[in-house]
Design goal:
- With 235 residues, the protein is mainly α.
- Helices cover 62% and strands 7% of the residues.
- It has two domains: 54 residues, no CATH class; 163 residues, no CATH class.
- The radius of gyration is 22 Å and the shape is elongated.
Length: 235
């Protein structure tokens, strides 16, 4: 049984209150004022009882049990060549959202497929941004250039800039809202599911950035692609 804090409340009860306030602070439906007030109250209670967010999160994990990752597949359309820009786009997006990805080539399909493995919310973000970005890149490269080689170089430039911007954006978000315990538990769950689905894989070879005009034009286009507003459309 948990000890009493001297005011008629057990420490378990205090932790539960803090957990509810933190949940409210991170609720996408809460207004900025509501979220700020909830976090302020949670921090005051944590300071009073010498508790940390990591301790609160550990308690939540114990009550919810083991976390489970999931797998979802998506198609590549613009090129059938193994390790295309679409494959690297998928890999970059997976890294941003703490997921894993495997490129599945040929056999029963005319196109490559990408398989994302991660926590359900993270995989949903991977699928959304992969679909959105591959269509944005494909549309812009076909408008910008007519030759296949130049289209491909444009796509590489645009894709790489988009991935860099996503990484910067979501690194800031995670640093503000994610505790170390969550990162570790999610990583373990993702790796377990990944190995279950893909016991044998090999790494993709890295590709050196190109400095052609088409690549630079693509890089510039990638800097103009709207990203943060599209994230908001998910919620």
């Amino acid at each position: 049984m948990d000890e009493n804090n001297g005011n008629g409340k057990s420490l378990d009860s205090v932790k539960a209150t803090i957990a509810k306030l933190i949940t409210l602070a991170n609720d996408k439906g809460a207004t900025p004022a509501e979220a700020a007030l909830a976090m302020e109250r949670a921090e005051k209670i944590m300071a009073k009882y010498n508790l940390t967010q990591a301790e609160i999160f550990r308690e939540q994990l114990k009550s919810k049990g083991k976390l489970s990752a999931t797998r979802e597949d998506a198609d590549c359309y613009w090129t059938e060549r193994t390790h295309s820009w679409e494959a690297y786009l998928a890999n970059g997006i997976a890294l941003v959202f703490e997921s894993k990805v495997v490129i599945i080539s040929g056999f029963d399909t005319d196109h490559e497929k990408v398989a994302f493995v991660g926590m359900p919310d993270d995989v949903a973000l991977c699928l959304y941004f992969f679909d959105y970005c591959q269509n944005e890149v494909g549309r812009h490269m076909e408008l910008a250039y007519s030759k296949k080689k130049e289209q491909n170089e444009f796509a590489w430039g645009m894709m790489q800039h988009i991935v860099d911007r996503l990484k910067e954006l979501y690194t800031r978000i995670r640093e503000a809202s994610t505790c170390t315990d969550l990162i570790v538990v999610k990583k373990d769950a993702v790796m377990e599911t990944f190995r279950d689905h893909f016991p044998s894989t090999r790494s993709m070879n890295s590709r050196r950035p190109d400095n052609s005009k088409a690549f630079v034009d693509g890089w510039i286009a990638g800097g103009k692609t709207h990203l943060s507003s599209n994230r908001d459309q998910l919620h």
